[in-house]
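$ fold --in a.seq
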Amino acid sequence: MRKFNKIFCIGFHKTGTSSLRDAFNILNIRAAHWGAHRRNRLLHSLQEGKHNKELDNFDAFMDVPIPSFYSHFDQTYKNSLFILSVRDVKSWSQSVVKHIGGRMRDAKRLAAEERVQYDHWRGPLDIKKCIKKYNTHVKEVKEYFTGRDDFLIFDVKEGWGSLCNFLDIKVPRKPFPHANKSRK
């Protein structure tokens, strides 16, 4: 396995972050997702510039608020790996609308981590602005990590191949997990 300090999955929520968490667990890489971030008040610690114990207890991190702090993690956690999970914008935006649901009417009903991700604090959450924020994030992350070998752009539809190649780890016998997969 490739040596690394931490793995930060810096794609927006609804880009396969739950599937990545499950994949890392199959690979015996301790992964923290949304629930752990909320329990450990990770966003609060990051905003206050304080260390959070969650960052000691896990090896891989994904979902909000992780994407909003990618440059901080890059500067603070040397020798770490970064994975930008991506998804077709149309299916991503449909998943966001389904996930957020009625909370889109008022940003105050969103979790603080979601408000940070969308940089939206009051009033209705406009899906067109969410799409713009998503596209801007993807563009900025790609520019930030250009030419680096510690960075992977990953769509969960790819399955194990590119992820295991990036981590220099054998592809497991288990199928790649697809958590929260929408039914057509």
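$ fold --in b.seq
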Amino acid sequence: MTSFESRFFDKFSLNELVKRSESVIGLNCSGGSAGGGGISMGAGGIGKNQSNLRRTESIGCQIADATQFDEGKLIQALKQIVEQDLGTNKAVIIKSESREANNFSLQYTLEKIAGRVEISGKKSGNFYTLTADLQEKSSAR
């Protein structure tokens, strides 16, 4: 963790978030031939007095039981966990949006950091892909 990123940003894991959710009924996100896999990418710029960090994570899951899978419940459960994690890290949520049942975004501040996390889901046949996009901008502490 650099002095420019928050503990929330440093510890964030979409895979762990999905595991912590009790609303993954009907999904198999365990990997292997029956489940899915994940990918994570990050980029950033750190200057003398500021930083701009970004990370994108994605996880693919197989819809094992379409009758039990509820996308809206899953997205809401993930949003609640992210809100709790932000609160635990003493971040203040300044804006919350859910434009559709398959996504949400939260903007937050923490000391001299302004951040945003967006999680969205997309169904394609028997597969469901979750993507998280995290951004943080900060000035020197």
